[in-house]
Amino acid sequence: MLTRIDHVGIACVDLDASIAFYRRTYGFEVAHEEVNEEQGVREAMLRVNGTDDGGATYLQLLEPTRDDSPVAKFLARHGEGVHHIAFGTADVAGAAEEVGGRGVRVLDPAPRHGSMDSRIVFLHPKDCGGVLTELVQAADQGGGRGEG
Amino acid sequence: MLTRIDHVGIACVDLDASIAFYRRTYGFEVAHEEVNEEQGVREAMLRVNGTDDGGATYLQLLEPTRDDSPVAKFLARHGEGVHHIAFGTADVAGAAEEVGGRGVRVLDPAPRHGSMDSRIVFLHPKDCGGVLTELVQAADQGGGRGEG
Q1: What φ, ψ does residue B7 adopt, rounded to 5°?
Q2: Is A134 a catalytic residue?
Q3: Nearest-CA distance from B56 to chain A in Å?
Q4: SS3 A5
């Protein structure tokens, strides 16, 4: 059902500074950058490796664009650090239904738009051992706004 | 230098319950389980996917074995959740030296024993945007106690 760690989401106060840190320190490069107004974040995807399901694993750096966004609230409470982990799947709607049937609250009633035209749902961290967990279907796995 | 996300370390209060959650909810299976007395943890590695450097990405579930271990202190402060992320490398000593030369404090003066006979160092989270970061060389990349 879930075939890779798609990304680790990291909350930061200054996206450009975080990008510079990861490039300078480890040599990771930005594969994609976008603003997600719905989630109130400016974000960058740094590709770390390819995965054996034909996808890839990224670091996702997240800077809030407004004070009432979930990432801004996370930063106010916890400071910078890991915000969530995301598992990749070829069928996010099906995976959400399966996981929901196993007693985990799915926070999105239907998949919504994520990074790089993916489709995503979030799971309730209290049902996932304190880990804010995302399920993601990449655009080349049938994701994208067109389907949503 | 760093060629994969090797694992995401997750602190939990009850390893068996966490293993059961990840198996029941997502179908992830335990690839390896061990006690690391030095770090004061009982841990399980759940393999999620293979990576294009010939390695794999795991979830690492960590239960403290004593109250003064770093993971016990993390749980007391933050509760359950993501504890650290680990990047895989073919040369952990070389990577630690490079990263140290770029102004990041390396917490271990020499690589020490990690999961599955890997060799690891930790980096200071304050130098890594709030992310406790580990560098890991797998046993089949020349890791293992024999070299250490």
Answers
A1: -165, 165
A2: yes
A3: 8
A4: strand
Nearest to B79 among A25, A57, A130 (CB): A130
From CA B87, how far away is CA B68, in angstroms rounded?
26
Q: Hey, what domains does chain B have and what are their CATH numbers?
A: 4-143 (3.10.180.10)
Q: Does A107 touch chain B (CB under 8 A)?
A: no
Which uninterrupted H or E stretch holds B25? helix B15-26
Complex ipTM more than 0.90, yes or no = yes
Going by pLDDT thresholds of 50, 70 and 90, the confidence category of residue A143 is low
- Is A60 marked active-site? yes
pLDDT digits (tens, 9 = 90+) for A28-77: 999 999 999 989 999 999 999 999 999 999 999 999 999 999 999 999 99
Calculate mean pLDDT across residues A81-94.
98
- DSSP assignment string, A70-128: HHHHHHHHH-SEEEEEEEE-S-HHHHHHHHHHTTPPBS-SS-EE-GGG-EEEEE-GGGT
pLDDT in tens, B30-67: 999 999 998 999 999 999 999 999 999 999 999 999 99
CA A123 to centroid of chain Cα atoms: 12
> Per DSSP, which regions of chain B are E strands?
4-11, 30-36, 41-50, 56-64, 81-88, 112-113, 119-123, 133-137
Low-confidence ranges of chain B (pLDDT < 70): 142-148
Contact B27, A1 (CB under 8 A): yes
- Tell me if B4 and A49 make a contact (CB, 8 A cut-off): yes
Preferred mutation among A71, A131, A136 to probe B, highest tally of B CBs within 10 A:
A131
Q: Is B8 on the interface with A (CB under 8 A)?
A: yes
| Arithmetic mean of pLDDT over chain B | 94
Chain B contact for A101, CB < 8 A?
no
**Residue of A63, A134, A137, A141 with catalytic role:** A134
Using a CB–CB cutoff of 8 Å, tell me whether A20 touches chain B: no
